[in-house]
Design goal:
By secondary structure, the chain is mostly helical. It has one domain. The chain has 12 helices and 4 strands, in the order H-E-H-H-H-E-E-H-H-H-E-H-H-H-H-H. A two-stranded parallel ribbon has the order 1-4. Strand 2 and strand 3 form a beta hairpin.
């Protein structure tokens, strides 16, 4: 048992270190390539930056995952369910095209539905609400429609919070850490979690520096949103068991570790619809934009929202 544990730990350390190094290299190279082609993020009235930047973080993250996955696939070692690369690649490609050329939100939404159906066909579906509102088992059609809605909502919620430096990455890391920490045993996605967190780490340097910055871009936010949606659906299945000492209702658990994206998307949708606007038309009415006008610092806003998220997780665990 001890030797097995040591082997698993050594594999995770190797995967994490490899992802860290590879991600750093790819972010640097791809950013340099985009700068040479003048494929930069144009500053406009909705921008929260004024320096030169590229939207290459997402494609670097995906390529890191893809290359590491390819290596382990070739040597015959499945470190997670590789079929997830199909929906994740679709989201990344659509996001990258949007970063470079722009894509109508309706087309992006259609691809999100396609991705959701692929995830469902892979066996991940919300077919039980675990007693929420007195509802348990769902019919097949209801379960599919609900799962598609939840996947699209989560993908867009992560996309919506990618408005200031470091925020989306930090919220994703907090969520993944909570997902793994509160599970009673190693999840099937523990290696994927290691790769994603390690790949995001070097992005902070490129994202927070003052010149030639690197943003996640839509390729990154859609990619990460896809991963988070898979994790959320996994939590709501019977296969994911929360540690007894932290066990609370699964829907409340999801809300606690994904607090800010949920609050932000509900709030912004409500405000835009009330004003007769499309909920998908971008503006600067998000909570993080409002906080930025007060605090004048991307880092301070990210820290404040992150600390509030941690506080809420502790509060929910204490109360329930």
């Amino acid at each position: 048992m001890y030797l097995m544990g040591a082997l698993i730990l050594s594999i995770k350390i190797s995967i994490g270190f490899g992802a860290l190094v590879l991600s750093s290299f790819l972010i640097f190279i791809i950013n340099k390539k985009f700068l040479s082609k003048n494929l930069i993020d144009k500053v406009n009235r909705r921008s929260s930056h004024s320096s030169v930047a590229t939207r290459t973080g997402g494609v670097s993250l995906f390529l890191t995952l893809f290359l590491i996955s390819s290596y382990f696939y070739i040597i015959g070692y499945e470190i997670y369910e590789f079929s997830l690369l199909v929906p994740l690649s679709i989201l990344t490609i659509v996001g990258l095209y949007d970063d470079i050329n722009g894509v109508d939100f309706k087309l992006k939404f259609i691809f999100q539905i396609i991705v959701a159906k692929i995830i469902i066909d892979n066996g991940l579906i919300i077919d039980n609400l675990h007693g929420f509102a007195g509802i348990y088992e769902l019919s097949r059609i209801t379960a599919q429609l609900l799962t598609i809605f939840i996947i699209a909502a989560i993908i867009n919620s992560i996309n919506f919070i990618d408005g200031i430096d470091g925020l989306a990455s930090t919220i994703v890391i907090l969520f993944i850490t909570g997902f793994e920490f509160f599970a009673i045993s190693l999840t099937p996605y523990s290696n994927l979690s290691t790769i994603v967190i390690a790949s995001l780490a070097p992005l902070y340097y490129f994202n927070l520096r003052n010149r030639n910055k690197v943003f996640l871009g839509d390729s990154g936010s859609l990619f990460l949103g896809g991963i988070i949606s898979v994790y959320v659906i996994t939590i709501l299945t019977n296969d994911y068991i929360i540690k007894p000492e932290y066990d609370i209702h699964k829907i409340l658990f999801v809300f606690s570790i994904l607090l800010y994206p949920i609050i932000d998307i509900i709030r912004i949708f409500f405000l835009r619809i009330m004003k007769g606007k499309s909920p998908f038309i971008a503006d600067k009415k998000h909570i993080h934009h409002i906080l930025l006008t007060k605090l004048k610092s991307h880092i301070h806003v990210t820290l404040l929202i992150s600390l509030f998220t941690l506080f809420f997780i502790v509060m929910v665990q204490t109360i329930f």
